[in-house]
Amino acid sequence: MKILVIHGPNLNLLGSREKKFYGKTTLAAINTELASIAKKNQAVIKFFQSNIEGEIVSQIQDSRKKFDYIILNAGAYTHYSIALRDAISGVKAKVIEVHLSNIHAREKFRRESVIAPVCLGQIAGFGKDSYRLALEYILSL
Ligand code: DQA
User: Fold this and answer.
1) Any one Gene Ontology biological process term (predicted)?
2) Is ligand 1 within 6 A of the CB of residue 103?
3) From the centroid of its chain, how far is CA 35?
4) CATH code where residue 26 lies
5) Could you report the predicted ipTM of this complex, rounded to two decimals?
6) Is the backbone of residue 99 left (phi > 0), alpha (psi -120 to 50) or beta?
7) Distance between CA atoms of 76 and 54, rounded to whole angstroms?
């Protein structure tokens, strides 16, 4: 199984950014935990973070033929990026949408995900464990 984890804008600041929503764990620590779970399960996992919408679009396009699944936290782009949605629709890799916070329990503008309809499913509200749950689902297949 080949899995790509994409972290969108502002997620490089995890650990110091709005801890009440996103927790104290850094992005590096999340990636380390996921890498160790993947290794135990003989899966290949790669990580990418960008604050730039176009770079995330390119990364999704490049996943063609290289990855079976993408775990995607698109950050704020979740709520308005049709470009990201189109990129997801255009590739074979199946995408699982994740969020640390429960986007449905926050401001109204966060309740809509424009990418949700083209993703396999959504995991939101479990902090860093949202990523782990997505990975464990993939590994269980
Ligand atoms: C987020 C939720 C988004 O609404 C927000 O813009 C983020 C993080 C989350 O993981 O909870 O940057 O995707």
Assistant:
1) aromatic amino acid family biosynthetic process
2) yes
3) 14
4) 3.40.50.9100
5) 0.99
6) beta
7) 14
51 labelled binding-site residue: no
Place of tokens 């189109």: 86
Q: Which of 65, 86, 66, 92 is nearest to 74 (CA)?
A: 86
Full domain range(s) for residue 91: 2-139
As for how many domains the chain has, the answer is: 1
pLDDT tens for each residue of 78-96: 999 999 999 999 998 899 9
Mean pLDDT of 20-40: 97
- Compute, in angstroms, the gap from residue 37 CA to the centroid of ligand 1: 24
Residue type for position 111: R
> How much is the pTM?
0.98
Q: φ, ψ for residue 73 (rounded to 5)?
A: -105, 100
Q: Whose CA is nearest to atom 8 of ligand 1?
A: 75
| Backbone dihedral region for residue 30 (phi beyond 0: left; psi -120 to 50: alpha; all else: beta) | alpha
For helices 129-139 and 27-40, what crossing angle results, to 10°?
20
